[in-house]
Write a structure and sequence with these properties.
Order of helices and strands: EHEHEHEEHEHEHHEEEEEEHH
Helix content: 25-40%
Shape: globular
Structural class: alpha/beta
Number of helices: 9
Radius of gyration: 18 Å
Mean pLDDT: 94
Strand order of the largest sheet: 3-2-1-4-7-6-8
Length: 280
């Protein structure tokens, strides 16, 4: 039996559908245990799942995203971010490490057990996923790393990160993402290869737009270049403000899923179809 992957996440009504696809696809390839901080609406669904510990918080995520221009929207989004740390702390109370995953992931492979062993046994402090944008100006503002996927093994190692995040506006730092880059300078960090946490932002720069051609089928598995794609990071259902900058990547990946004869891919498509017709 595969070793359990410990995962923390944050879920609100607006992303519940996304999270269920994340959870389903991740569990096709990994044995998972989840610690989820969520709003009341999502809690009613997630409490019915055997392998999810739910920690409910009070939040209205209407117009609360990282691009909010009005103060209350930014405040609501910060509250969601801080509840990310609640889920992580709860996971670390019972486990020697945990991954954090955003609620908008699609997994197509398992997380390597050797990677898990390194963080679990304390040989490294953090696992991180670089943005890989090839855009120094963007990464100077937003940070070198994407905080939608990382792992940590000690709650004390995130204490400074939490404080910087709480005060990010005063310090002119981009939410929790730029602070993450700053605290990692004090720790031993494993950077995962580019086939992990494949987000739409990796295809935006003039020097990276051709990367989309590297996403292809090899022996009925989706690869990014010569590496098997572990997981993609994009909104499949939710399109904040009616615009989804990652739609091109969603269309590319789902086109390949439909083209492949891979049985797990067929299961993902069937579950996606089910979620598309389900009111949550």
């Amino acid at each position: 039996m595969k070793e359990k992957v410990i995962i923390a996440s944050v879920v609100t009504k607006n992303c519940l559908q996304e999270f269920l696809l994340t959870k389903y696809s991740c569990e096709l390839f990994n044995n998972c245990s989840w610690y989820v901080s969520c709003d009341k609406h999502s809690a009613s669904t997630l409490k019915q799942l055997d392998n999810v510990d739910v920690f409910e918080f009070d939040i209205d995520d209407t117009k609360s995203d990282h691009n909010s221009i009005e103060k209350e929207g930014r405040k609501r989004f910060l509250n969601i971010i801080l509840n990310k740390f609640v889920a992580i702390k709860k996971a670390l109370e019972r486990n020697p490490y945990c991954f954090f995953l955003d609620s908008d992931m699609l997994f197509l492979e398992e997380i390597d057990s050797d990677i898990i062993s390194l963080i679990k046994e304390g040989n490294i402090d953090f696992i991180a996923t670089p943005h890989f944008t090839n855009d120094p100006e963007v990464e100077f503002k937003h940070g070198l790393y994407n905080v939608g996927m990382f792992a940590v093994n000690d709650v004390e190692k995130i204490s400074s990160w939490i404080e910087l995040t709480k005060n990010h506006e005063k310090l002119n730092l981009y939410y929790e993402q730029k602070p993450f880059e700053l605290i990692l300078k004090n720790f031993l960090v494993l950077n995962l290869p580019i086939n992990h946490n494949i987000g739409w932002w990796r295809f935006n720069h003039p020097t990276t737009q051709s990367r989309i051609n590297l996403i292809k089928l090899e022996n009925d598995k989706i690869c990014f270049g010569t590496l098997k794609a572990i997981n993609f990071h994009f909104h499949v259902y939710k399109e904040a403000g009616g615009y989804n900058p990652g739609r091109f990547l969603v269309d590319k990946v789902f086109g390949l899923l439909r083209e492949s004869k891979n049985e797990n891919y067929k299961k993902i498509l069937d579950y996606h179809e089910h979620l598309s017709k389900t009111s949550l």
